[in-house]
Design brief:
CATH topology of the largest domain: Ribonuclease HI, Chain A
Bound molecules: iron/sulfur cluster
Oligomer: single chain
Strand content: 15-25%
Number of helices: 10
Distance between the termini: 72 Å
Order of helices and strands: EEEEEHEEHHEHEEHEEEHEEHEEHHHEE
CATH superfamily of the largest domain: Carbon monoxide dehydrogenase alpha subunit. Chain D, domain 4
Largest sheet: 4 strands, mixed
Helix content: 10-25%
Strand order of the largest sheet: 4-1-7-6
CATH architecture of the largest domain: 3-Layer(aba) Sandwich
CATH class of the largest domain: Alpha Beta
Radius of gyration: 24 Å
Structural class: alpha+beta
């Protein structure tokens, strides 16, 4: 059946990137609107293989342009139930990236698709071909889907209308875990979907911690593991509680060793600074520590400006992703802001100082009234952020004073003493656990006396000049 398509389909195209110069069209993404959605239905309601396209097709699109894009699939089968909609929906990313010349990023309302010029030159002329190929892969890989039909939309008004409905579905899914907590279950769920581009990523989904991509919650993990035991989602037995507040469990640590190929052996699910969860790259929001105010800021994909640390989302996402534990950065799913265990090891919301206004509005029902979180309207750099936090008596300001007093006391007691190796950092500055990062040690030669350790450093060398020693 695959021969009828003018493109190849294989996991080897998963990492394919389509750059601007190779782009035929871009669909959805940051410059437009879109979403993907899977709904379950009765067998009688689904016409197997049917594709409906609303709006211009690929051959009618202007080269180099961006169009809105929605993909709605209806699935039916004996084992199909609403519980599995999310995990089937997440596989759309997987399967579509198998298509040569087609790049799919992100999930839900954040999807971003690119189609290459080369794919069009080879004969790709209709989005219906993409829909048919995707549905074929869904049925081949997930045999519990007996019938599937697709509606693709490229008409802006229609995308906007359907997006409102889709948001209600996402919201209802997210609400399901609010009354269930980590301590109520013995099993968490893992996912390896992102290991194709983040090989050491250890994704653990618990009742109090939605996945980084935001598309899979604990119920989805459970349904996926049940319906597709050989699939990418699987159970992780919690094991012994090692740190209740930080969210460290022996079963999760064992899974971390296994899934990261030995790179990581500890994960604290509710900690930013100490053995944080790894970050793959498709997280909805990235958190960044600002030592100048001893607070954490958050920035999401939709925010186009720079955060008070001077960096945009894209730069911080590049710094954070790849399946690593990165000191000072953390990727999360938006729904984790609503968790009662949200970064509880670090003080939770008491540590949050900044986020874009649109994101703050989205999660405002979870922010305690006593915490004033700045947005781009209040602070655009560290100085204006400091001013805002002082004015609003943000809890982090108390730590500044305590920190200064502690420093003064230390200086009075031992003005010239250098900190001992392994000593705790000044109070107020969080203790950052040792991370297993690539490191390089440069010794000062046989004479000793100098040791430089470069940990997780990125070094660019423009020119090397080698001269004969005089
Ligand atoms: S972020 Fe986690 S849950 Fe989501 S697709 Fe990636 S590995 Fe799976």
């Amino acid at each position: 059946m695959a021969e009828e398509f003018p493109f190849e389909m294989s996991p080897m195209y998963e990492g394919e990137r389509i750059r601007k110069d190779d782009l035929y069209v871009e669909l959805a993404g940051p410059k437009s609107k879109g979403f993907e959605l899977v709904r379950s239905a009765d067998m009688s309601e689904v016409e197997d293989g049917k594709v409906t396209l609303i709006g211009p097709d690929l051959k009618d699109m202007e080269e180099g342009s961006t169009y809105p894009f929605a993909m709605i699939y209806r699935i039916a089968g004996e084992g199909v139930e609403p519980d599995i909609e999310s995990i089937v929906e997440r596989r759309n990313h997987d399967f579509q990236n198998y298509i040569q010349g087609y790049m799919h990023l992100n999930q839900r309302y954040d999807i971003w698709v690119r189609i290459s010029k080369a794919a069009v030159e080879k004969g790709l002329e209709s989005l219906k071909q993409i829909a048919e190929a995707t549905m074929m892969m869904f049925k081949n890989e997930l045999p519990f889907i007996e019938k599937i039909e697709a509606t693709y939309i490229t008409d802006l008004a229609e995308v906007e209308k359907e997006l409102e409905e889709a948001k209600k579905v996402y919201e209802a899914r997210d609400a399901r875990t609010r009354d269930l907590h980590d301590e109520d279950v013995d099993t968490f769920y893992g996912c390896t979907l992102c290991q194709s581009f983040a090989p050491t990523n250890v994704c653990v989904v618990t009742p109090d911690r939605v996945s980084l991509c935001g598309a899979i919650n604990w119920f989805d993990g459970r349904a996926a593991a049940k319906v597709d035991p050989e699939g990418p989602q699987f159970p992780i037995e919690k094991g012994e509680v090692i740190d209740e507040i930080g969210g460290e469990y022996s079963g999760v640590n064992e899974a971390a060793v296994r899934l990261s190929g030995g790179m990581y052996d500890r994960i604290k699910l509710h900690s930013f600074f100490e053995y944080p969860h790894t970050s793959c790259g498709c997280f909805e929001v990235v958190g960044f520590y600002m030592p100048e105010v001893d607070g954490i800021g958050w920035v999401d994909r939709d925010f186009k400006g720079t955060a008070p640390n001077g960096l945009p989302f894209s730069t911080m996402a590049g710094q954070t992703g790849g399946g690593r534990q990165v000191v000072g950065f953390l990727g999360i799913g938006i729904n984790y802001f609503r968790s009662p265990k949200f970064l509880q090891a670090d003080g939770g919301w008491k540590k949050v100082v900044w986020m874009p206004k649109a994101l703050k509005d989205k999660v405002s029902d979870s922010i305690p009234e006593s915490i004033a979180v700045a947005t781009e309207e209040d602070a655009t750099d560290i100085e204006s952020l400091k001013k805002f936090l002082i004015e609003k008596k943000h809890p982090v300001v108390e730590t500044w004073t305590a920190e200064e007093e502690e420093e003064e006391k230390k200086e009075e007691a031992a003005p010239a003493a250098a900190p001992a190796e392994g000593a705790a950092p000044p109070s107020g500055i969080p203790t950052v656990a040792p991370m297993q990062m690539p490191s390089m040690t440069v010794s000062g030669g046989s004479g000793g006396g100098l040791k430089i350790v470069l940990s997780n450093a990125k070094i660019t060398v423009d020119k090397i000049i080698v001269k004969k020693k005089e």
